[in-house]
Amino acid sequence: MGEIFNKIKDLHAALPQGVTLVAVSKFHPVEKLLEAYDAGQRHFGESRVQELEQKVPQMPEDVTWHFIGHLQSNKVKKLVRCAQVIQSVDSLKILHEIDKEAAKQGREISVMLQVHVAQEETKFGFASDEIVSLSKEGAFEGLQAVRIVGVMAMATNTEDEAVVKQDFERARDVFEELEKGEFAGRSEFSELSMGMSDDYAWAIERGSTVVRIGSSIFGPREY
Ligand SMILES: *Cc1c(COP(=O)(O)O)cnc(C)c1O
Would the CB of 154 count as within 6 Å of ligand 1? Predict the structure, then answer.
């Protein structure tokens, strides 16, 4: 068995109960995904719609596909056809477009609200106070085909451990505020997706339930 197989087995053994591993397979060929699948991996994450579309038919049907990239309106239709989870919902506009398209296609899509906690302008997501006030206004109610299952966040890309930990704490605070507030009683709202190859241990310590790990499973990406 190869390195990817062993890495998946090790991660499955090491991650606490209740933490889902999403293997981030963007830019990697299907052969590598199949090796991860053979080791028992079922959740895969991709960040480009076209690449996802190409991989889906080449993989077994029991894979759950997570979309984690920035989503543009003109790709919603294609994405709704092939993803089960869209983690990177960063505006009300895109949320409603997904809902409308999913209803039209007769599909149910799980989504996460991406919250912007990083100290970088380049990252996407709702501001944390925005997400809370929108929630209080009822902006996340009345969807037909979309289930909001939680919150996704990315920490600042920095070597500074304290900054990364603080970002995760802010994401956790937002998640908890929604969970105890407008989403109280909506049991599907239960996921906090944060933590990547270099920082997932800190994310888990701060309540992450979904880690998105790419390079430490599949090696460096070739862009
Ligand atoms: C690429 C990517 C990851 C995985 O990053 P690694 O450092 O390779 O583990 C996780 N989350 C998002 C949103 C990504 O775009």
Answer: yes
